[in-house]
């Protein structure tokens, strides 16, 4: 997994998790949903990079 893409995936996951928690705390379902979407995007990016690594070997 390229270092830059791995870092980007982790950053998206962390940002999404934080945003989701903040949305839940203040009762803002839209913010929580946006956080879940960002986290899912980070998860997808990480899975894509891991798949690329498997086929490189």
Secondary structure: elements and pairs:
Blueprint: H1 3-26, H2 29-56
Count helical runs. Answer: 2
Low-confidence stretches: none
Number of strands: 0
Radius of gyration: 13 Å
Strand content: under 5%
Structural class: mainly alpha
Coarse morphology: elongated
Query: Roughly what is the average pLDDT, rounded to an integer?
Result: 92
**What letter string, H or E per element, gives the SSE order?**
HH
Helix content: over 70%
Tell me the span between the first and last alpha carbons: 11 Å
Biggest β-sheet strands, sense, barrel: none
Describe what you observe in this structure.
It is a single chain. With 57 residues, this protein is mostly helical. It has helices at 3-26, 29-56.
What would a concise description of this structure say?
The protein is mostly helical and 57 residues long.
Characteristic key phrases:
57 residues, 91% helix
